[in-house]
């Protein structure tokens, strides 16, 4: 979900189904406390966990001038244990005509939004609950904790009257009977919407038929045969025209339908047609980067509604307008948020961080003159305040859940930094695809992505997540440097903006050196303290131009870069081993071991302790590790029983 170009979220005001405001929710070790709700107590929440929803069928009567609705919702579920009753939610002001369990009318109890019906089921049994109801969804005035589930408005620009749903994060119960649990996706869902025949109703899945009822009304029958979370179920009703385009991703079995419901105003489609057409380009790109479009046997599409942003309703996003940033963000959600959904609102990063990074990837691949400026703006917004973590501690606070600065911008920026740490785009994007496969049609926590990174790369991301995901703030880097002949003494210092929370950032950092008469050299340095010193051999003469993180991989500010003549007095600078030496160092990946006198065993380790290469070497032998990529490596040399370890910087 996204608003305008500020990458801030359409602020909702509901706080219905949240975790505890205390730090007990969403603990980093994933031992999650029970959910806390403003409408259900803990015992009622526990009752909803006794069954799993497998299917919803919404059969509703609607129009575009009022949010009032009526109809029947069938929920099919399976019992997780012996079950004598089942509890679900529907907003308290709706009138209920009848509830049927397995087709038979039953009595029920109702306390505020909590409805309990008798169920006689053994563990594993399936049962159905049908609710006939009618009424008007709440507004902010009638439900200060919600009022966002269903809205009615007219477009101030295009004049269309629209009724549309927007249930994220806790407002689905404001318009249909349901169970609001992120980790309980329905396996499939049908949406039958009866409306005046001069209107159209958009929803999830495939439009299998439009039935003319012969009385001035038509029934739109949408069927979605993929797992879906409660808040991604949607409907939008207006006087739309349909405009369709197709994407043709490499590897797709068939063209993918992009079905668009646009306001029935001749100027609307004319204004947005080029932007809508570009959705096909974004689909083809993300198909390549993230893996196959998860719902390609159905469709993707858009329904217009008069609000300032978009909401990633599964297979049919609701959008107020079209531009490349908004459209690519919402399309990215079909993988990140819909196909794989955050398992808790504390980990909304799984949804919004990756959808926001989808915008950057779109620019990088399709508008390469714009991506650098975009990421710079993202970093600037993150650093407009000193603190704040990507991980959400207070999941009762919806403004915090959907913080544009932290959830969206910092969330996207740290994914960019993870890509830098991996240092291999092929591997990085394969990790994204593998994660989509592993958690397909399911839910995931932030730490699940951490484990995927580690499993695929062999890199320990514990410190990175502690500092950048759970931690707060950003570093400010400063440099001292001194030329010593053809060598360079370098001191990298950093302070942090929130030292009482995150006092140290241990990610690597790039430094670019300009060398007169030679090509510039960028070297990646390992940072393990607030002050690190390095002796760089044979780098040549350095001009006064040195830049830190020139490609903007890391959220950071730059302090001072000063040439000093006092660094050689610093006893902490690693000295070059007197008997064995790597030359050249830094190197382009090829080097020799000076003063090696006999056959030796050589092992190459990365800075996470993973052995990357092992071989035997002769004196004066040229050793090539270019295939390992740029970085800093530990070269372990064993001559008989003597083992020495030297540091090599490969660029």
Rg measurement, Å: 29 Å
Q: How many strand units? A: 39
Helix content: 10-25%
What class do helices, strands and sheet pairing give?
alpha+beta
- CATH architecture type of the largest domain: Sandwich
Strand order of the largest sheet: 8-7-11-5-4-14-17-16
Strand content: 35-45%
Topology, element by element:
Elements: E1 2-3, E2 17-19, E3 35-37, H1 42-48, E4 51-61, E5 69-79, E6 83-89, E7 95-101, E8 104-105, E9 109-111, E10 114-121, E11 126-135, E12 150-154, E13 161-165, E14 188-196, E15 200-203, E16 206-212, E17 217-224, E18 235-238, E19 240-247, E20 256-263, H2 266-277, H3 279-290, E21 300-304, E22 309-311, E23 317-319, H4 324-333, E24 340-342, H5 349-366, H6 371-382, H7 398-401, H8 404-422, H9 425-438, E25 442-444, H10 446-457, H11 462-469, E26 475-484, E27 487-496, E28 509-513, E29 521-525, E30 531-536, E31 546-548, E32 557-563, E33 581-583, E34 590-594, E35 600-606, E36 611-617, E37 623-624, E38 631-639, E39 642-650
Parallel strand pairs: 4-14, 20-21, 21-23, 24-25, 26-32
Antiparallel strand pairs: 1-22, 2-3, 4-5, 5-11, 6-10, 7-8, 7-11, 9-10, 12-13, 13-18, 14-17, 15-18, 16-17, 19-20, 22-23, 26-27, 27-30, 28-29, 28-31, 33-34, 34-37, 35-36, 35-38, 38-39
């Amino acid at each position: 979900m996204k608003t305008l170009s500020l990458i801030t979220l359409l602020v909702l005001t509901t706080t219905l189904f949240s975790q505890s405001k205390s730090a007990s929710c969403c603990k980093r070790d994933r031992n999650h406390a029970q959910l806390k709700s403003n409408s259900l107590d803990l015992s009622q929440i526990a009752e909803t966990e006794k069954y799993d929803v497998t299917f919803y069928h919404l059969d509703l009567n609607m129009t575009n001038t009022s949010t009032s609705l009526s109809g029947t919702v069938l929920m099919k579920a399976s019992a997780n244990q012996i079950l004598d009753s089942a509890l679900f939610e529907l907003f308290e002001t709706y009138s209920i005509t009848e509830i049927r369990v397995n087709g038979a009318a039953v009595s029920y109890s109702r306390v505020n939004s909590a409805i309990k019906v008798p169920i006689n089921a053994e563990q594993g049994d399936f049962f159905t609950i049908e609710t006939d109801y009618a009424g008007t969804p709440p507004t902010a005035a009638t439900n200060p904790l919600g009022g966002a589930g269903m809205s009615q408005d007219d477009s101030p620009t295009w004049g269309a009257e629209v009724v549309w749903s927007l249930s994220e994060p806790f407002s689905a119960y404001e318009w249909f009977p349901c169970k609001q649990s992120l980790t309980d996706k329905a396996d499939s869902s049908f949406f039958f919407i009866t409306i005046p025949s001069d209107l159209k109703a958009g929803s999830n899945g495939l439009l299998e038929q439009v039935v003319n009822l012969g009385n001035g009304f038509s029934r739109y029958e949408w069927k979605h045969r993929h797992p879906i979370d409660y808040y991604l179920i949607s409907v939008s009703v207006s006087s739309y025209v349909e405009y369709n385009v197709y994407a043709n991703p490499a590897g797709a079995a068939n063209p993918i339908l992009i079905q668009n419901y646009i306001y029935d105003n001749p100027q609307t489609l004319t204004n947005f047609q080029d932007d809508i057409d570009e959705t096909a380009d974004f689909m083809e790109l993300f198909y390549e980067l993230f893996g196959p479009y998860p719902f390609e046997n159905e469709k993707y599409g858009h329904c217009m509604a008069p609000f300032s942003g978009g909401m990633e309703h599964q297979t049919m996003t609701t959008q107020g307008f079209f531009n490349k940033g908004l459209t690519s963000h919402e399309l990215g959600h079909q993988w990140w948020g819909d196909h794989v959904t955050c398992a808790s609102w504390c980990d909304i990063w799984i949804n919004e961080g990756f959808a926001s990074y989808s915008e950057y990837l779109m620019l990088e691949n399709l508008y390469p003159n714009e991506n650098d400026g975009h990421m710079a703006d993202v970093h600037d917004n993150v650093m407009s305040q000193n603190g704040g973590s990507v991980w959400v501690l207070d999941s009762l606070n919806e403004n915090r859940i959907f913080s544009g600065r932290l959830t969206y911008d910092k969330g996207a920026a740290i994914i960019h930094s993870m890509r830098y740490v991996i240092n291999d785009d092929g591997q990085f994007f394969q990790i994204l695809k593998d994660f989509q496969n592993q958690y397909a049609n399911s839910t995931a926590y932030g730490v699940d992505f951490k484990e995927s990174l580690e499993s695929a790369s062999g890199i320990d991301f514990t410190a990175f997540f502690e500092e950048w995901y759970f931690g707060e703030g950003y570093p400010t880097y400063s440099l001292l440097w001194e030329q010593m002949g053809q060598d360079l003494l370098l001191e990298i210092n950093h302070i942090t903006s929130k030292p009482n929370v995150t006092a140290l950032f241990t990610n690597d950092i790039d430094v670019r050196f300009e060398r007169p008469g030679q090509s510039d050299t960028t070297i990646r340095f390992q940072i393990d303290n607030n002050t690190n010193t390095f002796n760089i051999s044979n780098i040549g003469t350095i001009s006064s131009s040195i830049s830190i993180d020139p490609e903007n991989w890391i959220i950071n500010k730059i302090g001072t870069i000063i040439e000093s003549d006092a660094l050689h007095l610093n006893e902490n600078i690693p000295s070059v081993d007197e008997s064995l030496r790597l030359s050249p160092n830094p190197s382009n990946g090829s080097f020799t071991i000076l003063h090696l006198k006999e056959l030796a065993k050589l092992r190459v380790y990365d800075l996470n302790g993973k052995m990357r290469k092992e071989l035997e070497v002769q004196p004066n032998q040229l050793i090539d590790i270019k295939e390992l990529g740029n970085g800093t490596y530990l070269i372990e040399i064993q001559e008989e029983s003597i083992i020495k370890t030297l540091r090599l910087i490969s660029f």
